[in-house]
Amino acid sequence: MADSWANLGIDLHLEPAGSSGLRRGLTDALRDAVRTGRLAPGTRLPSSRTLAADLGIARNTVAEAYADLVAEGWLTARQGSGTRVAERAVPAAGAAGAPARRRTPGRPTHSLVPGTPDLAAFPRTEWLRAARRALTRAPNDALGYGDPRGRPELRTAVAEYLARVRGVRTDPNSVLITAGFGHALRLLGTVLRGRGARTVAVESYGLFVHHDLLAASDLTTTALPYDELGTDTTALTNEGAVLLTPAHQFPMGTPLHPDRRAGVVDWARRTGGLILEDDYDGEFRYDRQPVGALQGLDPDHVVYLGTASKSLAPGLRLGWMVVTPALLAELTRAKGHSDTVGVLDQLTLAEFIASGAYDRHVRAARLRYRRRRDQLAAVADRAPEVTVTGIAAGLHAVLRLPPGTEQAVVQAAHWQGLALHGLSFHRHPRALAEPLDALVVGYGTPPESAWADALEALCRALP
What we know:
- It is built from 13 helices and 17 strands.
- By secondary structure, the chain is α/β, with parallel strands linked by helices.
- The strands form five sheets. Strands 4-12-11-10-9-5-6 form a seven-stranded mixed sheet, with helices on both faces. It has a four-stranded antiparallel sheet with strand order 13-14-17-16, covered by helices on one side.
- α12 crosses α13.
- The radius of gyration is 24 Å and the shape is globular.
- The protein starts with 18 loop residues before the first helix and ends with a helix.
């Protein structure tokens, strides 16, 4: 379904007096979604258990709402095929009392746009427990303006976690807490410009928003070539810094070749340039242990950047940098005299990591996303001219298409009610490599209840 089920016209700010109010609200919302065409005939609805979990209500409430709509003829329920929207005749255009219907794409029903995890899987119960413990233990002065570097509890937890899981060489005094990756990149842009840098090298394929953030600091971005070994770091010259995703290149999905990892470190030592390592989904590797962070090769020349956006949720606005003492002082001055990240969220994440809940959540997410990637590969197998490329890692995969078909497939997906990015969306405007026709499929984005239907919509759009 296109919207999350919680947004399927169901305004659960109803605050009903009892379970009958919830049932009536859900029944009305589903009926309206069918009546207005947002739920097309034949659409398979999630199980009562799954939908109840997504909405945070009792399973019986969903089952009773489904039964009401089956009795009214809006839905059908058959053993083995689940609950579906009933097939029905569509009034012809101009029929008395019936509005004309045109098949025009509107707001997408499903999204496979990369960059977001399954937000329905956020560990609300464990997070709430961690928040209660953190708030109970917090000293009074923690509620003040705070250290601009971030709370020591979180810096300590992050340093220990990164050393253990990502091979980062650090300690709490080298960690700076930020309000996400964008905040970190703005700070780095300010410092780099203050140091006299004019140019930052980036990968041929990436996120344009990162380029815009660097441009806002009056820094020009140049695109490095890309080939079968990943980003070609041998093309670096006298840039002030280079921004890389070495563990799992976004969006191409390949790790940086070992020779090029060593080469970019040699470049940084020789020129004094900085390597900005975006480790955006480095924890999610499915076929082997994740490749260790590049920062471990040379902490003096690599700035490690990570966030909770892919492992937990981007709405937390929590990220971190691991830097040298000299750079930390400059970044702290650029950040300001007081902490700019919510202290209660910092304390909660620190407790969440220290308690082991973060590790458990990541392990569970790894299993879920691995299954989805396998299912995506199976769908691609049904289209002989489509191949899944990249390593088994992360929250997205690249589907290579026949030459010249990318825009047509993206448009076909749009008509199927599916939001989808072509690879060209992520291509740097000055990239030198030959354009490739491909889709960047974010298989982490849909909630579990919508995943199967999103895959079906993708299958219908593929050539």
